[in-house]
């Protein structure tokens, strides 16, 4: 029974009781991402104030891994500076690409370390990354948008 | 392979134990020594030793480039390639010169779509009847695999023709109530799947062909999920063009077949051009070979053709009527077994009438990926996702389904494993 290594309790908890599952108002940027191999999709909104992520909201459909992952991400990144949020995103990406041998830094990733088991299953890595890629896209759009506005 | 299941024991038209002995991969284990329960033949089938041996023998004894060179190996390779064409032609009741080798069925469908597009811009009078433009109509169905949808979308975009489709009813069968208005006088092409890769539905070819004939539309059939699983005679189907893939019928990957009526193939301009498909070449223009060579540019997949012919021989030896009967039995058994699980809903016909061995279902409260993960943990290998039929998923209001698909090497114990594993998924995710 290897299932428990993927579906750790913390993942199942976030799946059943997701954080940030709402269309955030007000927001700076909205993105829509799909996983073309399975059809999962997510609409994600981000709010930034003075370089700090002050809100993330998401809606969509997907498996337990994708839903839990975006929930964990929301809990982890809201309140962080954008710079720090993107560092955490990079750490999570590295963990997911580690093929099960990553040694995640719990100080950086907190609950997101639970996804180490998922990284052993190549078909599921994209599920775990769906929300994170959406966040990165939205955050970068928000930054680029504000840069354009600055003369 | 043994099981103690009380639900076992029905007679079958195939000797599954001896068939399984021909498939080396079926004796391996997966995920911590679980018995492999392979229920994903709709995606690709496993290959018997006879097919692997045929490919190896070709490479070890006869390998050379075909249709060129005057040496002995070139003669033998050409013979093997053309003999394979004849075997495959006989398997589907076709004339040998009506069999075009392609990479797979997707390429077969693209070949047709691009050829029709090329006909539209061709000054060859032979191609005139195949031209498309604004006001013309191409009809598909809502249950098509993306391979039989996207090429037509693109052809319509290039030519200005209109794409229209037949809908699907709640049971997963084609809604033919407005067949005559959808397939109207403007319809130039009617392209549909013989058997749905998601629903398992076998479509009424006779009704569709009869209507297409009334309006003079070209009939294209995606036979990917039918030729491997039931007797198919392309001449009695009544279509103009039929395509299927080798790898879904015990053959190698990288080879598929497009059958076309000789007069249609002769009128069709080439799709991929280059070596081997020409008649004469000048610096500024070329003329093209007769079919099937016209559609086989470049060095073809010779060993794969030889392997596919061995697969046809293997299936012929079993008898396609027996293959079909076996799968109907497994399908009925699977539908019955899954029906015992509350919260499991079949997407597609709930009886085995006019239905093949692809059974899609959703489990309330569990995403298909998660169902598939639990099944995989128990060695049960199925397909999860949208099955390259995204519009069909939307039609049924689901994001994804779990699909089990059966073949000659499956038996009732495999279905028992599927049902038990699905129940285990419900328990794991606490939805029952």
Describe the structure.
- The complex is a heterodimer of chains A (151) and B (432).
- Chain A has one domain (3-142): Sufe protein. Chain: A.
- Chain A has six helices and three strands, in the order H-H-E-E-E-H-H-H-H.
- Chain A has helices spanning 3-6, 9-16, 64-77, 82-96, 106-109, 122-149; strands at residues 29-35, 40-49, 52-61.
- A three-stranded antiparallel beta sheet of chain A has the order 1-2-3, covered by helices on one side.
- Chain A is globular, with a radius of gyration of 15 Å.
- Chain A starts with a helix and ends with a helix.
- Chain B is an alpha/beta fold and 432 residues long.
- Chain B has two domains: 16-47 and 319-428, Aspartate Aminotransferase, domain 1 (Alpha-Beta Complex); 52-316, Aspartate Aminotransferase, domain 2 (3-Layer(aba) Sandwich).
- Chain B contains 14 helices and 17 strands.
- In chain B, the strands form five sheets. A seven-stranded mixed beta sheet of chain B has the order 4-10-9-8-7-5-6, with helices on both faces. A four-stranded antiparallel beta sheet of chain B has the order 13-14-17-16, with helices on one face. In chain B, strands 1-2 form a two-stranded antiparallel ribbon.
- In chain B, a hairpin with a 3-residue loop joins strand 1 and strand 2.
- In chain B, helix 3 (72-91) packs parallel to helix 10 and helix 12 packs across helix 14.
- The two termini of chain B are 30 Å apart.
- The interface between A and B is medium-sized, with 19 and 19 residues.
